[in-house]
Amino acid sequence: MMASLWQYVLAGVVVGAIYALIAAGFVLIYQVTGLINFAQGEFAMIGAMTAASLATNGMRPLEAAAIAVAVAAVTGAVCYVLAIRPARASTGVTLIFITLGLDVALRGLGLFVWGTNPLSLNAFSGGASISVFGGVLPPQALWVLLTDVVVFGALYVFFRHTYAGTAVRAAVANPPIASTFGIPLRTFAFWSFVAAAAIGGLGGVVVAPITSATYDMGLTLGLAGFVAAVLGGLDSLPGALVGGFVLGIVEKVAGGLLSTGWEEGVGFLILVLVLVLRPQGLLGRAVRRA
Amino acid sequence: MYGRIGLVLIALVAALVWFLPSYYTGLLTQIGLYALVTIGLNLFMGYAGQVSLGHAAFFGIGAYTSAALAVKAHVTPWAGMIAGAIVAALIAYALSFVALRLRENLLALATLALGIVINVVFNQWEFIGGSSGFKDIPPFAIGSFAFDQRADAILAWVLVAAGIWFAGNLVRSTFGRALIAISAGELGAQALAVDAERLKRQTFVLSAVFAGVAGSVYASQQSYIDPGSFSFLLSVNFVLMSVIGGLRSLWGAVIGAAIVVVLGQLLQAYVPVFLPSARGDFQQFFLGVILIAMLILLPRGITSRFSEARSA
Prior knowledge:
The complex is a heterodimer.
Chain A: H1 2-33, H2 40-56, H3 61-84, H4 92-114, E1 130-132, E2 135-137, H5 140-161, H6 163-173, H7 175-180, H8 185-211, H9 217-232, H10 237-257, H11 263-277
Helix pairs in contact in A: 1-5, 1-8, 1-9, 1-10, 2-3, 2-4, 2-8, 2-9, 3-8, 5-6, 5-8, 9-10, 9-11, 10-11
Chain B: H1 2-16, H2 22-47, H3 55-73, H4 77-99, H5 104-124, E1 134-135, E2 141-142, E3 145-146, H6 149-171, H7 174-184, H8 186-191, H9 196-222, E4 224-225, H10 232-245, H11 250-274, H12 283-297, H13 303-311
Antiparallel strand pairs in B: 1-4, 2-3
Helix pairs in contact in B: 1-6, 2-6, 2-9, 2-10, 2-11, 3-4, 3-5, 3-9, 4-9, 6-9, 10-11, 11-12
């Protein structure tokens, strides 16, 4: 019993690491624009599908991964320019509907380009499964965790130790005043979409060897990602990391103890509880009544 | 006016079903049922200014309630329809204490989450069929006459007409004006002695009743339901119908439902002619693009063109 419980926890850590990446994208966009981007999961789909289809056609994994992340980032930029910027004067509900439309459109686009068949991607490195205190992790799990370390590390350095990162924090803290100091809010909004899309795409690339890639993987990933983001606090990047892991572990443990069909339900039950009891999330600071 | 146009609409449908092949009659029913849900949704989203990404769940609750009663307890679909409405209303009432404390972004997330949790329950609860759902759901009947495709279409549009008539009277009453006040700003509405929380709750419950009734008719008309029929994607489609027709318009709900259903069919039929690789639910791509384009170019929906022309 204890052994299988530990195995569920390990499985939860792996999916949790992916959720954390998607959640980081939500948080970036939410912090800078006050917008919940319902299309976030689709960037992961685009990353995963691009990498898998390039690798299937004989490209080396690392190159395929780099191109996939670039494709996802460009998609994010195009989404912002074509769909978000023209409507930036709209009310909150309209923008929610627009990102919802983006989600639907990108998934349909994935279906057009790649069809319904799942594509597989080889693990980045071969080798046997890794044993951790009696539990087992696939080799790809190390790449997933490494990606988390690199991405969140880079975000930390950017926000704490660079001039641009400090400017973004100022813009988040008080947009009008930051604006009077010459901080270009609109440019930041653009780059928040690009960064969120690139991080989401990277999440898709590293998860593809574990789950394989399908055109409709973005919905599940996106939904889990924003449960993680809300759980950790929509305005907190460390919260995204914590929320991702907590959600992944709770889902897998609940799925293992009840049945896998309940996994998603448990996640959303958590979301509802958090929204009611602690809308600012675990690590979030204040509720922004957007 | 709502009443008279509604009667004309019923007469039109009743005449059409004698000429149309059964496939089109089925589509007509589908449009009617989706329109009914969208009318309720427009009260909640368009008039009261709230947002719901989970209305497929109430549609499903109506369907499951009447199907379970009919299959397990041999209750007639008529009683099942009323039961479906009541159960949807009760669940919406209970959920409103959770969801309606939230606004905009968070309300969207909460309704989305609740919709998915309810769908997971449909999937996991073996008593209501689990992932395989119900089959052989009996049709509506009057005496010994069991409803066929035509009768189903007429029933659906009688309900649409009744729904529009009711909602039309509602939005022109004090209640409707209070809703519009809430959408303009809850604080301001409260300053005008509008009990915003109570009205939002009533509207949410009412919209669930519309969806529940539509769902229970859907169950009998299809004679088969499973959890996949009530997924998040259907909730998104309801939003699409609502936005395309115009959020704050009751006829817009009907027009939006018709456009989304017909366009979906046309795209399914003709896109593969040009793009042989197109398979599956690819029409979602176009619907998504249309949704975005509408919100940017015509944020108040297609019907706003008519009303602008009229008032100009």
